[in-house]
Amino acid sequence: MSVLKLYEYPEPILRQKCEKVSKVDDALRRFLDDMLETMYVDKGCGLAAPQVGCTKRIIVVDPNPSDEDLSARQPLHLINPEIIWHSDETVLFNEGCLSLPDQRAEVERFEKVRVHYTDYNGDEQEILANDLLAIILQHEIDHLDGILYIDHLSRLKRSRLLNKLDKYRNECKKTKSAQ
Ligand code: NI
Questions:
Q1: How far is the CA of 77 from the centre of ligand 1 (A)?
Q2: Alpha carbon of 99 to ligand 1 centroid (Å)
Q3: From the candidates 108, 124, 140, 171, which is the catalytic residue?
Q4: Nearest alpha-carbon partner for 161 in 100, 89, 117, 108
Q5: What is the pTM of this model?
Q6: Is the peptide bond before 81 cis (omega within 30 degrees of 0)?
Q7: Catalytic annotation on 89?
Q8: Integer Cα distance of 142 and 14 in angstroms
Q9: In which band, very low, low, confident or very high, does the pLDDT at 179 lie, cut at 50, 70 and 90?
Q10: Measured distance CA(105)–CA(144) in Å, rounded
């Protein structure tokens, strides 16, 4: 397995609409393994293909990406995931994204979603998700349509967050050049 390069905001690939996968083969499974590895290394609980430079409709998620207890992990690979039902109720959650490092903001999501997808073996599956998993799935499926969580914020909140991201990146550069 290998760790893939992460594409960060404002890379144009993060804004592309991804294409459906037509065949689940070994090459695709290797890519899914690499995506999952990259997600764990970068301490995320979800990752979408465009974040690692691929415009296919693929996501990996794990609502419990524990480093201490590997058996507690709950990895899921979802190919061509599609939300086929959602609850009327919504919840607010403080979301982050590996493509916008060190930032978080509260986003409104559906409390429950039912998702249809193709799994690692190429079989059709459905999952009814609530709590954190439902939020992660909505965030990652958004990525496949070029949507980032900051698009759900007001213009003011979004520009504040992007200013903080700039500051954070400048601090990282300074720290690097001082070493
Ligand atoms: Ni994200």
A1: 15
A2: 6
A3: 140
A4: 100
A5: 0.96
A6: no
A7: no
A8: 10
A9: confident
A10: 20
